[in-house]
């Protein structure tokens, strides 16, 4: 990304798009009963509460009535329909890790089969976005979940810790290409969840080959355990190399969430919060998703940045937009063109 002398001035920045992940599939309802919705009505109301607090992107997972994470697409359809009716302008972003939790204690956490995950493209009503991982990666969420913050929660259970520590994100080349094809065919925008610079480089190659032709909405994930660690240098390296025309959201976990959100908002980028990322604030206190959104809004106001409403967020994310060619995709995302036959040196933007 290019930064000029006035790039940190709020009047030269897009409005802030706040993403919230309020369903926290890794936690059991008893871990934070005041803020983990279980019934369908509670899950819909949680989206409404988050929207009214200032979040315009809803990262969506679904629970069954017994509190476990749902793997039934019918439940996703029901929640999407309910949220769409209650807050029609909110961007609905379905989390692609729909089999996030282990089935039982001591069992490894596994995602659903490739074919089942492809069926996210057929959800009805269709979501605005589905998150897409690039490259198969270890996702050991336990690596940075310190024991003092897990005390008294379900994740203090050694069996569950072992299960989550062995989790991987399956996202090989054939699956990614087919998943992108299906999402684009159904008019659903992928939101790319990237584990580090290597994942973006693979995504860039997919764009340059025409496998994906659409806006680049990216989230950098600094959670360790196979992803980038929550080190500002990792984030800054990613920011420096991200294309000028993308949107970029910061994601981390526990007490790293607020610092990375503040860095992102100060640089004209976007924050993500919610109990999927942290259930505690900087002083170790329980902190609800709505309280985290309100905190982001306060920081945004201190920085002089405005918070986007639903319609503005849709325009910033270019929801519903697809491109007709590789060249158009590269240009729209602020990327240099592909090298033409016989061209020497660095290809220049037209």
Automatic annotation (TrEMBL):
Pfam families to which the protein is assigned, alphabetical: BKACE (PF05853)
Coiled coil: none
Keyword field contains Transferase: yes
Keyword annotations of the record: Metal-binding, Transferase, Zinc
Entry superkingdom: Bacteria
Signal peptide range: none
Key word Transferase present: yes
Cofactors (names): Zn(2+)
GO molecular function, one term: 3-keto-5-aminohexanoate cleavage activity
Full protein name: 3-keto-5-aminohexanoate cleavage enzyme
Origin species: Enterobacter lignolyticus (strain SCF1)
């Amino acid at each position: 990304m290019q930064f000029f002398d006035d790039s940190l001035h709020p009047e030269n920045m897009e409005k802030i798009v706040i993403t919230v992940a309020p369903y926290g599939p890794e936690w059991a309802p008893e871990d934070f009963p005041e803020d983990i919705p279980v019934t369908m009505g509670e899950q819909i109301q949680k989206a409404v509460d988050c929207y009214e607090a200032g979040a315009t992107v809803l990262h969506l997972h679904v629970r069954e009535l017994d509190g476990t994470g749902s793997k039934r697409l019918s439940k996703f359809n029901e929640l999407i329909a309910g949220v769409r009716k209650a807050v029609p302008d909110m961007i609905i972003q379905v989390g692609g890790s729909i089999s996030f939790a282990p089935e039982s204690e001591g069992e490894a956490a596994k995602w659903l089969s490739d074919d089942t995950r492809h069926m996210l493209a057929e959800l009805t009503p269709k979501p605005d976005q589905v998150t897409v991982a690039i490259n198969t990666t270890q996702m050991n969420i336990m690596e940075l979940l310190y024991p003092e913050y897990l005390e008294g929660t379900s994740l203090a259970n050694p069996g569950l810790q072992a299960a989550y520590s062995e989790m991987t994100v399956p996202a090989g080349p054939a699956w990614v290409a087919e998943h992108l094809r299906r999402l684009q065919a159904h008019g659903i925008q992928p939101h790319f969840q990237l584990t580090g610079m290597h994942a973006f480089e693979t995504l860039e190659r997919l764009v340059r080959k025409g496998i994906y032709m659409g806006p680049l909405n990216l989230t950098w994930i600094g959670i360790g355990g196979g992803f980038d660690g929550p080190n500002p240098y990792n984030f800054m390296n990613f920011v420096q190399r991200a294309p000028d025309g993308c949107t970029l959201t910061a994601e981390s976990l526990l007490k790293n969430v607020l610092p990375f959100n503040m860095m992102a908002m100060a640089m004209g980028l976007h924050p993500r919060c919610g109990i999927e990322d942290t259930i505690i604030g900087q002083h170790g206190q329980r902190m609800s998703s709505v309280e985290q959104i309100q905190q982001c809004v306060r920081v945004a106001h201190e920085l002089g940045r405005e918070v986007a409403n639903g319609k503005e967020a849709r325009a910033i994310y270019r929801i519903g937009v697809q491109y007709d060619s590789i060249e158009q995709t590269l240009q729209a995302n602020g990327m240099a063109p592909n090298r033409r036959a016989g061209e020497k040196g660095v290809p220049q933007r037209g």
